[in-house]
Amino acid sequence: MSRVDYGQGAVESRRGPSVRPDAATYTLDLGSHSVKLYEQQGESFRLVRTATWEILDAEISADQLGEFLQRFLNGVPDLESVTALATAAFRRRPNLGETLATACQFLGISVSIIDQESEADLMRRALARESVLASLDAINVGGGSIQVTSPTGLTHLLPFGIADLNRRFGLSKGPSEREVTACREFVAGQLPDWLGEFAYTGGERTYLESFGVPLQGIWCLADDFEIFAARMERWSNHDLESRSPYDARWMSGAIASNSIVIACLQRSGVHRFAPVDLNIAHGNS
Q: What are the Ppx/GppA phosphatase N-terminal domain coordinates in residue numbering (predicted)?
């Protein structure tokens, strides 16, 4: 049996027999904004698929969640080879955590609802494995929380994420209704004063490459990013969805994410950052 923890409570989620050592294993990253499936076989670790689900505000039954996960995991030969990591949405809503545990138990998936400290540790571990990134601070942004870490062990946790910023500053509304400047100022005021050159995680490199933003090796220059962000702020929601490098709904967080990057650049005073496709799953591999 494996434990599923959130807050002060815990429920049990069934785990079947051990997977063969030479078989592929899978990590299911259940974020508040999106869900991602990674496959590991030997030294290979790759993203299989991703989907936006915005589970933070969803009302969903265990049967519905189980059906979604079963469809999303289509092609995985053995569901007992899947380990799920669930984050802010399931921490905030214990009933949703119970629903997830029930769905995963039915499917035979091992699941853990991890706290922000664990998310930060996994992200720090993921960067430490990449020599060109190991000296950088990291910004890991989700739908319901943000973790800021340093390679020296400093951690700064923020109890809000993209979904919260969208609601508070109208960032998913039309261009004229978006309070982008206020959002940037708010986020900058919540960041630690020790923030220096940083990596911004979670598919950011693929995102910028898909829009042709100039990159210099691992770096994106602040000036280039600000030009890109300013252009995107004028796009309608239809424009955002139609140009998504992932699924259409993924772009519902684009304005908020861009605002966080600029807030980090302003707070740190640096002139570049490293967009990376690393995720907490890479730290768990």
A: 79-202
How far is the C-alpha of 218 from the C-alpha of 178, rounded, in Å?
Answer: 31
The model carries a pTM of 0.90
Q: Which residues contact 224 (CB under 8 A, 6 or more apart)?
A: 213, 214
Maximum CA extent, the chain: 55
CA 94 to the chain's CA centroid: 20
Tens of pLDDT, residue by residue over 241-260, are 999 988 888 899 999 999 99
Instruction: Specify the domain boundaries for CATH 3.30.420.150 within the chain.
Output: 116-283
User: Tens digit of pLDDT for each residue in 21-50?
Assistant: 568 999 999 999 999 999 999 989 999 999
Q: Which CATH number fits domain 25-113: 3.40.50.150, 1.10.8.60, 3.30.420.40, 3.60.20.10?
A: 3.30.420.40
